[in-house]
């Protein structure tokens, strides 16, 4: 728990869709995607078009924490994890950050019930709430929480399976 002043805490508790100032970043909501290794990089640790699509699908998060990225060859724990220590790797991440920034968070309005547990922690003074598997399976998690829509379950078998199945195949809620 960081950062809320005593004055803040004596006023109305924050909701998940309230913005938050994190250092120089103004987060549009308090929903954070947890770091999740997905072993979908290309050869030589390059970020791929599929990775750009995966992160762009989830760009409505207040903050996306990327998967583990190795800072050196020795720092690589698994095959097909992305790196950020060669010029080609740095360049390959531009398509990911570019895709996330053109697909930014939509403003959200106050909403009802299924986010109750998360907001309980906010009421106790937490600033941000992170979601892992549920964000993996629900790319539009922010909207689903906002509008109290049902949540899909993540398929464990495809966590590290490579390819786009279980990576790009989770969709926004269809009414
Ligand atoms: C497929 C997958 C990969 C993960 N990889 C990482 C990782 O590389 N580093 C890390 O700190 N946590 C990793 N985690 C843990 C998540 O960040 C998170 O802490 C965990 O899933 C619990 O949150 P949840 O109950 O909301 O899923 C991973 C989780 C999953 C499901």
Please describe what this structure looks like.
This protein is an alpha/beta fold and 175 residues long. The chain has a single domain (6-150), classed as Aldolase class I (TIM Barrel), CATH 3.20.20.70. The chain has helices at residues 6-10, 49-57, 87-102, 116-123, 133-137, 141-147; strands at residues 20-22, 25-27, 31-33, 63-64, 129-131. The strands form two sheets. It has a three-stranded parallel β-sheet with strand order 4-3-5. The protein has a two-stranded antiparallel sheet with strand order 1-2. Strand 1 (20-22) and strand 2 (25-27) form a beta hairpin. Helix 2 runs parallel beside helix 3. The longest helix is centred in the middle third of the chain and has 16 residues, at 87-102. It starts with 5 loop residues before the first helix and ends in a 28-residue tail after the last helix. It binds flavin mononucleotide.
Short description:
This protein is α/β, with parallel strands linked by helices.
The level of helicity is 25-40%
* CATH class value: Alpha Beta
Total number of strands: 5
Number of domains: 1
Q: Could you tell me the strand content as a percent range?
A: 5-15%
SSE layout and pairing:
Blueprint: H1 6-10, E1 20-22, E2 25-27, E3 31-33, H2 49-57, E4 63-64, H3 87-102, H4 116-123, E5 129-131, H5 133-137, H6 141-147
Parallel strand pairs: 3-4, 3-5
Antiparallel strand pairs: 1-2
């Amino acid at each position: 728990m960081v950062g809320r002043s005593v004055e803040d805490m004596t006023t109305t508790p924050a909701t998940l869709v309230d913005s938050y100032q994190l250092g120089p970043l103004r987060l549009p909501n308090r929903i954070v995607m947890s770091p999740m290794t997905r072993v979908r990089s290309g050869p030589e640790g390059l970020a791929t078009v599929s990775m750009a699509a995966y992160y762009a699908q989830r760009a409505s998060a207040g903050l996306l924490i990327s998967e583990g990225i190795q800072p050196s060859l020795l720092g690589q724990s698994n095959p097909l994890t992305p790196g950020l220590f060669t010029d080609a790797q740095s360049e390959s991440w531009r398509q990911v950050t570019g895709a996330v920034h053109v697909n930014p968070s939509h403003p959200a309005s106050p909403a009802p019930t299924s986010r109750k547990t998360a907001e309980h922690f906010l009421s106790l003074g937490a600033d941000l709430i992170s979601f892992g598997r549920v964000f993996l399976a629900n790319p539009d998690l922010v909207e689903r929480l906002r509008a109290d829509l049902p949540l899909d379950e993540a398929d464990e078998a495809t966590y590290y399976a490579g390819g786009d199945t279980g990576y790009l195949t989770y969709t926004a809620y269809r009414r």
